């Protein structure tokens, strides 16, 4: 103890005490602070929230309000969650081109990094569904047949048997699901964008969602085979009827005209 | 000729003759063949539309027989273990299971199924066009009214045979269609629920309807249709075929080629062409992919649930009808479904009874074997066009969701357009068609009197430019003026010379009015007379 007390007037004593105090405070903080807010993450998160806020102010605030609180032109985004942002911006629906019955998917104008920043900002406004991981929407361990049953029970009444889309009232529509990324399908079910009802995990478990995605990939994916030949849009009897009239009966009438034009010649006597 | 010689000759007869002789002695086909082999048929492509119907009907029967070998008309629940992965392990009826089996595991099963279904759509489309050909050319007139009704019945029965067949696989789409039908049956006041329970053997869907529809689809309706087809053909033979007006063609002859050998060869070849086209369509394009629709469960439904095209107009009726209903004393009358159910047969009957209305208006009791050109009968043509437009409006209504998504329209606007169009479009089409017909009649008259515009411009010595009109050939002149024009039937004076009033029935007044509308000044252009023609062509120069 004597050693310590003799050096208490040392010019560097204050610095040492300060360092010790900082280490103690830092150590205590790192022990007591929530694990999800680990130091390194914290800085990246707050950085992307800042970046997201800037992007939001430029691209979204005119309708959704400067703080995402919403306005007469767009709903409040407090509590919609990162998944909603990732879906709406990631499919090009947002930013919207013009108001209308429904905002259609179009060219995506933000990079995935920017979308993540926007999502981080919106998520910071209030808790909501998070962006699913590949593990949640990936094909591993899914049951296609179960997914088909779930799809026919919950989705087909708007999106058609195999997800070809369908009409809703007043110009609204359920879009064709061909070529939609599994992540976006998952997010749509989770968040219920625009006119779609939401299917949170309490209604449709994460496993069920994965099954539905796997079913859609099997029946409406890029390498889906159509065993019967041309699908004719997969729309059912309307396009089949049109095809029967135009190509079926049309060809038969053409053949009839051709046969009738070749009549037997009477023998010259 | 002595008996001896006769015997010798008989011994030397070739084998073919012997067989023919044997058969003739027992079946008497010689006299039948002799009288019918030289039966004459006129040549025109539109006369072959009926053949398309006949051949597609035969194709449907042949492929249908093949399908019955593998189809199980049962609603017992089974688990799917076939080769289509996305349905494996699903519960489904045996009917659906066996249709999946036909589609994926029976050799050639899917192709035969698709030929069967495509042929059904084409059969009905061909009947529709055939019927319209008969309608617009006036081929339904005496003596063919009964055959017109046979044909009409074939069309209606074809619709219901198609509907019952479409329902057999018990997939989600057809199950929705059967549910639709059940709803329509339920909407009938008082007896609706009883009828529904009778039809389905209890509460919908029950376990019976596939087996019942199966009997109706493969036995009852096709049996009746086959009988009607035979009757239809016998009557075509008996009446002889109609023909278009032309030089050498009269109401008392038929100009064309004999049945044997020309038409037998042509018809036989045409059968294979029809079969080929339908098989090609079936090989190219998918129809009713039940694997994509999945098995029927009453708690499921899909958008885009329409019936096959021939039932589409009934779908249209129900889709555009406002959902009215009346409640009194605890009973509900669902007008939103019941009114369409009433209009459904009326749409069909409207075209079926037309021939009888026309013959009543004209009062013409003569036989007609020369066809009309549609333009020469503007009122009939306008009525037919109006009916087709009416039918088409209903088809648009039936597919309103597909129209909405593919043309980016609001389904509500389409529904309202169909509501208005249901009443307005046929009237507009009637007026427009009639005017077009009259315009074409004027053009014909002009051609007869002034000749064909040759497109050659001639400059006369004094500087005037004229277009040279080439006179038509004698044949063309005949064809353009062969049609008969009716005079409007007048009631005549209702008061005779002594001032005594004659009683005129309301029906007579109506008939006179209709007759005026049909054949009055506004409704036909008088065809050129011989005098007019002579006066104009006798050298007064160009007009």
Automatic annotation (TrEMBL), chain A:
<keyword id="KW-0732">Signal</keyword>
<protein>
    <recommendedName>
        <fullName>Cytochrome bc1 complex cytochrome c subunit</fullName>
        <ecNumber>7.1.1.8</ecNumber>
    </recommendedName>
</protein>
<dbReference type="InterPro" id="IPR006311">
    <property type="entry name" value="TAT_signal"/>
</dbReference>
<keyword id="KW-0349">Heme</keyword>
<keyword id="KW-0479">Metal-binding</keyword>
<dbReference type="InterPro" id="IPR009056">
    <property type="entry name" value="Cyt_c-like_dom"/>
</dbReference>
<feature type="signal peptide">
    <location>
        <begin position="1"/>
        <end position="40"/>
    </location>
</feature>
<dbReference type="Pfam" id="PF00034">
    <property type="entry name" value="Cytochrom_C"/>
</dbReference>
<keyword id="KW-0813">Transport</keyword>
<feature type="domain" description="Cytochrome c">
    <location>
        <begin position="142"/>
        <end position="263"/>
    </location>
</feature>
<keyword id="KW-0812">Transmembrane</keyword>
<keyword id="KW-1278">Translocase</keyword>
<dbReference type="Pfam" id="PF13442">
    <property type="entry name" value="Cytochrome_CBB3"/>
</dbReference>
<dbReference type="InterPro" id="IPR036909">
    <property type="entry name" value="Cyt_c-like_dom_sf"/>
</dbReference>
<feature type="transmembrane region" description="Helical">
    <location>
        <begin position="242"/>
        <end position="261"/>
    </location>
</feature>
<dbReference type="InterPro" id="IPR009152">
    <property type="entry name" value="bc1_cytC-su"/>
</dbReference>
<keyword id="KW-1003">Cell membrane</keyword>
<comment type="subunit">
    <text>The cytochrome bc1 complex is composed of a cytochrome b (QcrB), the Rieske iron-sulfur protein (QcrA) and a diheme cytochrome c (QcrC) subunit.</text>
</comment>
<keyword id="KW-0408">Iron</keyword>
<keyword id="KW-1133">Transmembrane helix</keyword>
<dbReference type="InterPro" id="IPR050597">
    <property type="entry name" value="Cytochrome_c_Oxidase_Subunit"/>
</dbReference>
<keyword id="KW-0677">Repeat</keyword>
<keyword id="KW-0472">Membrane</keyword>
<keyword id="KW-0249">Electron transport</keyword>
<feature type="domain" description="Cytochrome c">
    <location>
        <begin position="47"/>
        <end position="126"/>
    </location>
</feature>
<keyword id="KW-0679">Respiratory chain</keyword>
